[in-house]
Amino acid sequence: MNGQPVSGSIILTDTTQLTFAIKDKAPESGIELEITSSKMRAYLKISQKPGVKYRPVLLPPPGLDEDVLISTEEDEEIPATPITEEEVLQKLAEKRITYGLKKEAVKKAVDNPGTSVLVAEGTPPVPSVDGYIDYIFEQKMTEQPVDPSGRVDHYRSHSVVSCKKGEILAVKHPPIPGKPGRNIFNEEVIPPAPADPEWRVGDGVLLIEENAIAHRSGRPMIKDGRLTVLPVYSVDADLDLSVGNIDFHGDVIINGNVQDNFEIKATGMVKVAGNVTQALIEADGQVEVVKNIIGSRVIAGGVSTYYQEVSFYLFRLKELLDQTETALKQVLAEKASQEKGQSERLIIQLLLDSKYQDIVEIANILYQIEDETTQEKTVPELRELLSGLRKKIKPTGLSHIEDMEELSLLSSQTNKAYEIIKRMDFSKAHVQAAYIQSSEVKAGGNIVVTKRGVYNSLLVAGGNVILQGDLGIFRGGVIQAHGDVYAKELGSPGWSKVVVQTEPGRTITAQKVYANVVIKIGDRAYKFDDNDTGIRARLDTSGKLLLH
Known about the structure:
Layout: E1 28-35, E2 41-49, E3 51-59, E4 69-78, H1 85-94, H2 103-111, E5 117-121, E6 132-135, H3 137-141, E7 168-173, E8 181-182, E9 188-189, E10 205-208, E11 211-214, E12 219-223, E13 226-230, E14 232-235, E15 246-248, E16 251-254, E17 263-266, E18 270-272, E19 276-277, E20 280-283, E21 287-289, E22 292-294, E23 297-300, H4 303-336, H5 344-353, H6 357-371, H7 380-392, H8 404-422, E24 431-437, E25 440-443, E26 447-461, E27 465-467, E28 473-481, E29 485-490, E30 498-502, E31 508-513, E32 517-521, E33 524-527, E34 532-539, E35 545-546
Parallel strand pairs: 14-16, 15-17, 16-18, 17-20, 18-21, 19-22, 20-23, 21-24, 22-24, 23-25, 24-26, 25-26, 26-27, 26-28, 27-29, 28-29, 28-30, 29-31, 30-32
Antiparallel strand pairs: 1-2, 2-5, 3-4, 6-7, 7-11, 8-9, 10-11, 12-13, 31-34, 32-33, 34-35
């Protein structure tokens, strides 16, 4: 106004000279390039936004006063300057994009502003093909045996594959190198070199050029990462005094019964055509008993069964130690405002003697399991935990845990050992029998009972527990599984004590469950006070235990 800048409301007179300028919105044009992380493609998008030319307008007074409002309104559109193909090609050259240019695609992008168009594309390398070893004998293991009627024969579902001397067990296919490619910057792209696996063979296998040949008859398998042929020990009749106990590096086949007080220890599988009574069978492979297991101890999977059993107790121990730590914090917080009284060690002892007696019970179970296992089969973290646990919690229940720090360390060591064991690749050796009574059966894989069921026994499985016979009953005892559990009946009309436990994400299925049966999934448990039917126990997404 009168040559001076002003803002806000002003008063005009006849002599006032008022001038103003209007700022128009300028048009915008641009070239946008997107290059993929692999440098194999470039996408072009032309951005064009028109500008706006404004003109001044006088708005009517909003009230009775003689105010004058000056505003603007759009007068006309200012077109954006078109991007030319030459400008795009120059931009591509500046970015050193010289290979795989698509000039027709450049024209398409220029003619269609706002559309992303692929304008350059490299030639990808031809990938290498890894060499591999085809274990031919494993193909036989995946075949499901069938009976004459065409139905799957579950009684032979874990049958052992055998080979004859001179049979080809595996063939090595050599690697195939790939071919280089070129990216949009005209740089050579070399494909990764192919893997060339080395032969790893053990006893009973001979290498001839690219073939692995059985050097003896027996059972082919991958043992400790090496292709090996295990010999087979066969007993034509019963295992009795005429044979004696068996400790064999390979498979064992008993074509009769295993009589009272005899033992079989095998690094392979064990198959018994008759009954096993008052006996011990330990196998690194599977155990198949065609008839019954009575009053016996059967272990399939070697050290895997040890770790799987330990993992159940470590999970519960970690849970109880955490709860004890929380309880100790609460007690100490309540005493913080009071005069100093009992020591932390004494409070921990009182907690173990009252609310957390299960810690002492689990510790004693772990001590017993460790005493029955050779040291070389135990991972260092578990040895360290159990060594510390023995010093801090005596079998009598006397605690030497001094304070919160030691309690927390014990809990941390327990969790570390549990997580390591949880990640282990356990043997999937199965146990199969027609009927089990008053026995302890442990398997790295599944436990399958094909006929009457199980009475007063302990079943520990790294996989599923399946009672699939006509009765399919579990009358008394404990089932610990890392997989699913299926039975037709759990418990008995006489209220026999039954505990069935598995991990989160698994199910416990039973057509009928009697009173006094306890099921546990993870840290959730439920005890049946009455008979129930149609049970399919599992945890929902919130961790709640569902029964139906």
